[in-house]
Amino acid sequence: MAMENLAFLIPLLPALAFVLTFFLGKKLPSGGAIIPIVAIAISCVISLAITVGLLQNPEHFVTQSVHWFAILNLGILIDPLAAVMLSMVSFVSLLIHIYAVGYMSHDPAKPRYFAETALFTAAMLGLILSDNILQLFICWELVGLSSYLLIGFWFHKPGAASAAKKAFLTTRVGDVMFLAGIVLLFSDIFTVFNGNLPEGVYVLQFNEMFKLIPDLVAINSTILGMEVSHLTLVTLLFFGGAVGKSGQFPLHVWLPDAMEGPTTVSALIHAATMVTAGVYLVARTFPMFIAAPDSLMVVAYLGAFTALFAATMGIVMNDLKRVLAYSTVSQLGYMVLGLGLGAVIGAEAVGVSMFHLINHAFFKALLFLCAGSVIHAVGTHDMRLLGGVGKVMPITFATMTAAALALAGFGIPGTSLGFSGFLSKDPIIEGAYLFAESTGNWLPYLFAISAAFLTSLYIFRLIFMTFTGKPRTDYGGHESPSSMTVPLAILAILAVVFGALTRTSFYHFIEDNFVHLDIEALAELGGYHLAHHGHEPLLVLWMPLIVAVAGLVIAYLIYNRRVVDMSSIVSRNNPVYKLLYNRYYQHQIFVEFFSIKIIYEGLALAGFYSDKMLDWLVNGTSTLLIEAGDSLRKFQTGVIQHYAAAVVAGVGLLVILIKLVMEVF
Amino acid sequence: MLPILSLIVLIPILFSAVTFLTKTKEQARISALVGTLITLVLTLYMYFSFDSTTAAMQFEEMANWIPSLGISYHLGVDGVSMPLILLNAIVIPLLIIYTWDDVRSASNRFYGLMLAMQGAVIGVFVSLDFFVFYIFWELTLVPLFFMVNIWGGSNKKHAGIKFFIYTHVASLVMLLGIFGLYFNAWALTGSPNMGIDHLISQFQFFESGILRDAIFLALLFGFIVKLPVVPFHSWLPDAYSEAPTAGSVLFILLKIGGYGLFRVMLPMLPFTATPSLMITIMGALGAVSILYGAFLALAQKDLKRMIAYSSISHMGYVTLGCAGLVSLSVSGAMFQQFSHGLIMSIMFMSCGVIQTATGTRIINNLGGLAQKMPKLTVIMVLGFMASLGLPGLTGFIAEFLVLTFSFINVPIYVIIALLAIVITAAYHLWALQRAMFGTFNEKLGEIVDISSYQTLSMGIIALLILYFGLYPSPVLDMMITNSEKIVSLMAVMGV
């Protein structure tokens, strides 16, 4: 296979495109968009070719590695997991770049836009094909940088500048945990080898790390009176990184604010690709998670909780993009839950979660691009000002409805008939049921099924409020140009059929990822008891569809037929509405109280005054010495005899001192 | 063979004298640039013929000077000093280009002091005799003192004298330590010898443990005040922020405190009476500096003071990496010195540009500068990102090595340092957001972007940060070779 030798070009071409567009973009038509488009198209072709090669020959992973410095390497590992991610990311990125030619056509800073999205794509592709945890971390941070730059793309808007900072800082909390995980892992590996790391082996490579899992589980520390395996610590610290990047509770707060960036950025980075990096990290290190006691339980609970928590806020937002942002957080919760199900379904969990990740990328990118199409045409984000947009923008309406049906999960249980979102979300909910049955933990299932109901409710609320009924304001509007609608159509087709076409082969493909490892033995190390799928009761099987239909019907009745007067519910006096609308007062808690009151006003200013004290002490000492010097000057009498006496006294004192010192030592 | 080390010390000093004698600003800056470029060429020649696989001294020069006292003119360079010499040789010519059009400060005296400083600092790095070392060490004080005093800000007199006295007192304590080494070794061997390596090798034979610890602590004090570490940093914020931009950068290039840790302290450490106590002291000082510096930077309203505290925070990694006592943690600490020199240069230069353009450094009085100064913004964002430890840039390599490998021996201090990372990101981003982004503050009036001289100078440093961040081996390999040798001594002593 010649293609695999070109694997290094996958991240390198977009990186090159970044440099070229940055410096030459101004001189080229449409801000030099053609450079990243061509570069990413080639990356996409190489990725797809490698994926096809792997499909035919699943055990033949692409691996390349070069020495970097000291005991570290840079390398490429393309296994089925990486291959599907690479193909998805390069493909979605390509479509969004094409779409952006139309969407950004009026913006004077186009070269910077295309350079930064190219940088993002390079970093994200580099993250996916990393063969070691450090390189993954490096690209992880670069992805965060691009996200910072792109959220703050319109940096002259104070809101954008502030949202960019918030995103960087919040994810940074997770990143520090991730880094701490690497630090702890390295020191444990050091312990395992007794300080003599083997020559010529890069211990941070994933397959080398996985070999050491049994030794790492055995290292324990007592923390708060509990005996904790270091592998549990390491995996939970990694998961901390994922919580930040993939917007899980409580580090999800940055994601809705990130909508300050251009909508194309929201689609590319904050819906389809970057936010899935955390999920990918857990999937990538899944063998460590399954061998680490309790880790997967934490993952499952947090994922399920996030899915529900975010969905509750999704139903009260009035901003198109914010609804989608909370929807993204919620769906990422499902993916994380899917991975946590590894506690009962083993390596299959990775396939389940990744399948939802890929499907979500298509339909969520589509939702955002449709929203972008609406915003581009009408010039507002606020759904309250819209209504009846479907009449002027039929293509956007049709594609967005397809995406909504995919997100809400419409399909026939027990068959392969359904929108892609159904085919991937359903296994997660089913898995949560199995998880509940075999471990007795019912909460994740309850959260997941309630979130499914809310998902359907908020997305059809959005559809009905925006596209149906009569226009509530005079917004004008027109259908978008074809450079925008063609990507919409392509993504819509994928959102409808991708799931159905690939379901069986996808799971098998991802399962091949771990054929080299004995997952069941690892699960035993982690103390997880793998269960097998039984037959669920009929009600459980149909439940996801029932709640989805219920959500649709309720949304239709309220927002289209207006059978309920919403003004009694949407009111400042309704405490539930108030709580949701204020987003559980997260801003007050995290920003105003914790960041400003505790960290800034408390600690930093305490430091400021203690430093003043220290400075005062130093200055005070010198003043004291100067005054002492002044009074000593009075001894300078100018009388020779006085000096001679002083000299004699001094010498005598010195002699005594030296004698004393000699005796002490 | 050329006495290349003597040349790279003497040429800047010689050109310093020539520059002082020039009549006009044009002559002064050309003379200064020529002097530093010759030094740069010689240094690059030395760097490219340097063998990074050996920890031994290279390009050694040796001549008796005062035989009766065992003082000799002994110079040499190894993997500890080579990168720091390179740093000085590269940044100082760029600093001259940066100040090319500076109306306020550029003059014969200004450039003369700058060159004198370069000679003195390189002198410290190449000296292998404590006497010569101490002379150069003290000599570095003089140009900086005048820099602050002549071209400083409104509070320059106070800042200058405070810096001078504070670090001078520390140097005297260090001198006592040197005398302790010298006289005790003389008593042991029967002959005087000021050679650094000789004295360090005799240190282990001193009988009294209290004496050994006292000598160690005296030397340590001298070095860590220069570094500086909290709580001996009070001189720094005033001096750094009152100095003119070029002076601040010269302060940053004054990496002699950290250098002393590697050259003198670490080889002596295993032979102190209480090595574990000394490790605790160094680790704790490092970790506290990192956290304290970060919080203080967050509390600053003046951009330059913020950068000054940021510098304290970053230098904590040097002490922490030393306390880590693994070859890669020590290499990380050495690399931090190199990286910090480049990154802080960009930070102070950016701050200088802003001050010249707007007349203020108070962060809240700025705002939206990115719209008026796009070129500066690109370079400054890169510098800030490097400073907050973004991978792909030099700061990350150093911090990663220090954190990861210090964790093996001193995990607690690494955990403290990790806590500071988010705070570090916070003050950098906060400053960028307030100063550069958001709506432009119309009160600032007409603003022009950086000049092409400044773009050139800062652009080259930015590229170096990127280059060594992606590929650190050209300087890191020699550091690793030498730190392996240093650490192997510890292993022998079972520390």
UniProtKB/TrEMBL annotation, chain A:
Transmembrane segments: 6-25, 32-56, 68-101, 135-155, 176-197, 217-243, 264-283, 295-320, 332-355, 361-380, 392-412, 442-464, 485-510, 539-559, 589-609, 640-662
One term of GO molecular function: NADH dehydrogenase activity
GO biological process: ATP synthesis coupled electron transport; electron transport coupled proton transport
Boundaries of every NADH-Ubiquinone oxidoreductase (complex I) chain 5 N-terminal domain copy: 72-114
Protein location: Membrane
Key word Transmembrane helix present: yes
Membrane topology: Multi-pass membrane protein
Principal place of residence: membrane
Ranges of residues in domain NADH:quinone oxidoreductase/Mrp antiporter transmembrane: 130-435
Gene Ontology CC annotations of this record: membrane
Entry keyword set: Membrane, Transmembrane, Transmembrane helix
Protein name: F420H2 dehydrogenase subunit L
Source organism of the structure: Methanococcoides vulcani
UniProtKB/TrEMBL annotation, chain B:
TM helices/strands, residue ranges: 6-23, 30-48, 80-98, 110-128, 134-151, 163-183, 214-236, 248-266, 278-299, 306-330, 342-364, 376-398, 410-432, 453-471
Keyword flag rRNA processing: no
Pfam families, per the entry: Proton_antipo_M
InterPro entries recorded: NADH_Q_OxRdtase_chainM/4, NADH_UbQ_OxRdtase, ND/Mrp_TM
Lipid bilayer topology: Multi-pass membrane protein
Residue ranges annotated for the NADH:quinone oxidoreductase/Mrp antiporter transmembrane domain, each copy included: 128-424
Protein's recorded name: F420H2 dehydrogenase subunit M
Taxonomic classification: Archaea, Methanobacteriati, Methanobacteriota, Stenosarchaea group, Methanomicrobia
